[in-house]
Design brief:
The structure holds two protein chains of two kinds. By secondary structure, chain A is an alpha/beta fold. Helices cover 39% and strands 13% of the residues of chain A. Chain A has a single domain (99-416), classed as TIM Barrel, CATH 3.20.20.70. In chain A, helix 5 (85-92) runs antiparallel to helix 13 (277-294). The radius of gyration of chain A is 21 Å and the shape is globular. By secondary structure, chain B is α/β, with parallel strands linked by helices. Chain B has nine helices and ten strands. In chain B, helix 7 links the parallel strand 9 (182-184) and strand 10. Chain B is globular, with a radius of gyration of 19 Å. Chain A binds chain B through residues 109, 112-118, 167, 169, 199, 292, 296-300, 339, 409, 412-414, 416-421, 423, and chain B through 24-28, 46-49, 51-55, 74-76, 80, 83-84, 87, 102-108, 159-161, 207-208, 211-212.
C-alpha cells in the first residue's frame, strides 16, 4: 500500500465554531509532533501489568509483508486442515483475493460447524458523548463542537425501557472517553440499570484498571469491547493526538486487565482503514488468539469496523478497504479462529450484513443509534424534552430489531436474542 | 431379542429410540420435523437458550411427549452447572439434566473433574444426571459412584464432525461400565453413528451433523436408520473380520481327538 494513503491526512478537518485559540492549539498538535506526548508513556494512575502480548503482536506485525505471499501459499492454506499463523497471513494477503469465493465457502462451513445457523442480535446504547481526546477521525473528538450530552439515571432508564420493550435482550453500553464526565461509578450505575432489564450487558468505554473492571463486573457487566483503532504505533501516534487514549500500550492491555478483573468475554478490533488493514487484521487476530491461549475460558470476539462519515466531516471514507477486502478479512478471521464470535455493525450496509451473516458473522446490531438519548424518538415514542446529543458516526444499516429479525429468518438464519445465563 | 423389547432405561424411563437429538444449531421451525424424522424420544436443549423472553422460545417447538434433556452449556464449573440445572427444573424442563462444563472457549472440551463434582451434587438432589465427559475410564467409574444415570463420552471435539476419534477409549467404557454409554459430540455422519452402535453404545447424540446438512429432517431420518442398523448389528453379533483367506465353516482343529 502507498504511504500517502497510510497517513490519512484527509481525516483531519477544522469544524466551524472553534475559537481562534482552540484552533491554534489544534493546529499545533496536528503540525508539530514535538508538542505531542510519547504514546508509549503511561500517564499517572494507569496500571501497568506484566504482559508480553503486545511485544509478540508488534513483532509479528513488523515481520509481516503481505506482498511476499503467492497463490501457492493461499492454496496450501485452503487445503490444510488447520489454519496456522502463516496460513492466516497468506489468506490476508493480496494473493488471496482471487480465492475469495472459495475462502467464503470454507469460512461458511466453519461458521456453521461452530455456530449452526444462529445469529445473535444486540443493540448499542450511547449514554454520554463527552470526550477528552483528540482522535482526528472520530465524531466525538474534543475539537469537534458537537452537542454534548450525558444521560442521568432517569434518562438512562427511559432509554433502556424503550429498548427492552422492543424485545432486545442484549445491550452494549457506550460512552465517549472521558473519565471526568463519565466516571467509573456512573458507568457502574448504568450497568446495574441494564442488568435488571437485559440478560447480557456489554461495555465499550475507555480502558481502565483491573480493579475498576472487577467493580463493573460486580455491578453487572459481562463483557468488554475495546478497539485498538490501529496496532501500528507510528500511525496511532499521528491519529490520536491528545488525551489518555493516546497511550497505546495502556489501551492494548485493556482486554487482559478486563479478564483479570473477571469479565466473561472480551472483544477486539482495529478500525480498518486507519493504517495497512492487512497488518491491522493480523495484529487483531493475534492479540485475540494469544489472550485466548492464556485465558482459555474467556469468550473471544472480533469486530471489523470501517471508517464512516461523522458530524461536521461528511467526507470521511474507509480508505483502501472496500467490501471485497472486508469480506476477505472476515473469512480469514473465521478460518484462523473458527470458535470466535464475529460482530458486524450497522456501519455496514444491509446487503453486506445479509451476505456476511451467511459466511462468517455471528452477531449483528439492530435498532441502532449512535447519538445520545434519542432511542425514544427513533423507536416511535415521544421525543425527550431534554434534547439529544450528536452521533459518533453515521450508520448505514438502520434496520429495527423486528425488521432485522424477520430478514434473518428470511435468509434461513436463526436469530438469537440471548444465549447467556447470569449466574 | 425381539425388536419391541430392545429398550434402554434412564432415570426410571424406558426409551426405544436410541437417537438423542440436539437442537441448538438449526432453526426452531425445523425442530418438530427433525424429531419426527429422527423418531427421537429425547431432545436436548440449552437452558441458556430456553431462558428467554423471545417470541420464539424453543420450548414451544418441541412436541409433547418428548423427554427434554436440558444441558448446562455455559457453565464453567460445578457450581454454575448446579445452578443451571436448578433453573432448568424451575423452567419446567423436568428432572433430566446433561452436564456440560467447559473452561475452554476454543475446543469446548469438557472438564471431567468439575463434571464429577456436579454429578454428585445433582444426583443427590434427585436429578437424572447425564454427564458429558472426555472418555477416561477412571472418571467414568467416579461418575458411576457419583450417581450418574448414563455416561456421555465425546467421539471428537464438539462440532468437528470428525467421528469416533476416541473409539478405542469409548470401547473401554462400553466394556467396563455398567451404565448406558451414550456417544456425544463429534459424530458427523450416519456411518459413524452406526459404527458406535455396532461397538455397543446405548445411544447416540448428534446436533452439528444435522445442522450442517442441507436438509435437517432428512438427515435426522438417515441417522435414525443408521442407528437402528448399528444396533441390530450389535445385537446380532458382528461376524469376524478376517485378515486374509476365507473362513472355514468347520473347525480347523476338528480332526483332533
Amino acid at each position: 500500500m502507498g504511504n500517502n494513503d497510510a497517513k490519512r491526512s484527509d481525516l483531519i478537518f477544522d469544524a466551524e465554531g472553534l475559537s481562534p485559540a482552540a484552533l491554534e492549539r489544534k493546529h499545533k498538535l496536528e503540525r508539530d509532533p514535538s508538542c505531542r506526548a510519547d504514546p508509549m508513556e503511561y500517564l499517572p494512575g494507569m496500571e501497568v501489568i506484566d504482559s508480553d502480548v503486545k511485544d509478540i503482536v508488534r513483532a509479528a506485525m513488523a515481520g509481516y509483508d503481505p506482498s511476499v505471499y503467492t497463490a501457492r501459499d493461499v492454496r496450501r492454506a485452503l487445503d490444510g486442515d488447520r489454519c496456522t499463523e502463516e496460513d492466516f497471513k497468506a489468506l490476508l494477503s493480496p494473493a488471496a483475493a482471487p480465492f475469495l469465493e472459495e475462502m467464503a465457502g470454507k469460512a461458511r462451513a466453519a461458521t456453521v460447524r461452530h455456530f449452526g445457523n444462529t445469529v445473535y442480535i444486540f443493540t448499542p446504547l450511547y449514554i454520554a458523548n463527552h470526550c477528552e481526546n483528540y482522535c482526528v477521525y472520530c465524531g466525538f473528538n474534543c475539537y469537534n463542537p458537537i452537542r454534548r450530552m450525558k444521560l442521568d439515571k432517569g434518562q438512562i432508564e427511559r432509554e433502556m425501557d424503550v429498548i427492552a420493550k422492543s424485545g432486545m435482550e442484549e445491550v452494549l453500553i457506550l460512552t465517549g472517553e472521558s473519565r471526568s464526565a463519565s466516571g467509573v461509578e456512573y458507568i457502574g450505575d448504568a450497568c446495574e440499570l441494564a442488568r435488571s432489564r437485559f440478560r447480557l450487558v456489554g461495555l465499550e468505554v475507555y480502558p481502565m484498571n483491573t480493579d475498576e473492571y472487577r467493580y463493573l463486573r460486580s455491578r453487572g457487566a459481562d463483557y468488554v469491547t475495546v478497539f485498538q483503532e490501529t496496532y501500528d504505533v507510528e500511525q496511532y501516534e499521528k491519529l490520536h493526538l491528545m488525551g489518555r487514549k493516546r497511550v497505546w500500550p495502556y489501551r492494548f492491555d485493556a482486554q487482559e486487565r478486563a479478564l483479570r478483573g473477571g469479565m466473561r468475554g472480551v472483544a477486539f478490533s482495529a478500525l480498518l482503514g486507519l493504517s495497512d488493514f492487512r497488518k491491522d487484521a493480523l495484529a487483531t487476530a493475534l492479540h485475540a488468539s494469544i489472550l485466548q491461549r492464556r485465558y482459555p475460558g474467556a469468550e473471544i470476539s472480533l469486530s471489523c469496523p470501517r471508517l464512516r462519515p461523522i458530524t461536521n466531516h461528511p467526507d470521511v471514507r474507509p480508505g483502501e478497504i472496500g467490501e471485497r477486502e472486508l469480506c476477505q478479512v472476515l473469512c480469514a478471521y473465521r478460518l484462523f479462529m473458527p470458535f470466535a464470535g464475529i460482530t458486524v455493525s450497522s456501519r455496514e450496509s444491509a446487503s453486506f450484513r445479509n451476505g456476511i451473516t451467511k459466511i462468517a458473522a455471528t452477531k449483528v446490531s439492530a435498532g441502532v443509534s449512535t447519538g445520545i438519548g434519542d432511542h425514544a424518538s427513533k423507536y416511535g415514542e415521544e421525543k425527550s424534552a431534554d434534547g439529544e446529543g450528536d452521533e459518533q458516526f453515521e450508520i448505514s444499516d438502520a434496520r429495527s430489531l423486528s425488521k432485522m429479525y424477520a430478514d434473518l429468518v428470511g435468509e434461513g438464519l436463526q436469530p438469537v436474542l440471548n444465549d447467556y445465563l447470569y449466574l | 431379542m425381539a425388536e419391541s423389547q430392545d429398550t434402554f432405561k434412564l432415570g426410571g424411563k424406558e426409551f426405544s429410540s436410541r437417537f438423542i437429538l440436539g437442537s441448538g444449531k438449526y432453526s426452531l421451525s425445523l425442530v418438530r420435523a427433525a424429531v419426527e424424522h429422527a423418531g427421537a424420544q429425547i431432545i436436548t436443549l440449552s437452558v441458556r437458550r430456553a431462558n428467554t423472553a423471545e417470541k420464539e422460545n424453543i420450548l414451544d417447538f418441541i412436541p409433547k411427549g418428548v423427554t427434554l434433556l436440558p444441558n448446562t452449556s455455559g457453565a464453567r464449573d460445578a457450581d454454575e452447572a448446579v445452578r443451571i440445572a436448578r433453573l432448568a427444573r424451575e423452567l419446567g424442563c423436568g428432572e433430566f439434566v446433561k452436564i456440560e462444563i467447559m473452561r475452554d472457549s476454543k475446543y469446548l472440551l469438557p472438564d471431567n473433574y468439575e463434571t464429577i463434582k456436579a454429578t454428585e451434587r445433582l444426583a443427590a438432589e434427585g436429578f437424572t444426571v447425564l454427564p458429558y465427559m472426555y472418555p477416561d475410564l477412571n472418571v467414568a467409574r467416579d461418575l458411576v459412584k457419583a450417581g450418574a444415570a448414563a455416561v456421555m463420552p465425546l467421539g471428537a471435539p464438539i462440532g468437528s464432525n470428525k467421528g469416533l476419534a476416541t473409539a478405542d477409549f469409548i470401547q473401554i467404557l462400553i466394556d467396563e461400565i455398567d451404565l448406558p454409554i451414550i456417544v456425544d459430540a463429534g459424530i458427523g455422519a450416519p456411518s459413524q453413528a452406526c459404527r458406535a452402535m455396532e461397538m455397543g453404545a446405548a445411544a447416540i447424540m448428534a446436533n452439528t451433523a444435522l445442522a450442517t446438512s442441507g436438509d435437517v429432517p432428512r438427515m435426522a431420518r438417515a441417522f435414525r436408520l443408521a442407528i437402528e442398523a448399528g444396533r441390530e448389528a450389535y445385537l446380532a453379533g458382528l461376524g469376524r473380520v478376517l485378515a486374509r483367506g476365507a473362513a472355514a465353516s468347520d473347525p480347523l482343529t476338528g480332526f483332533l481327538r
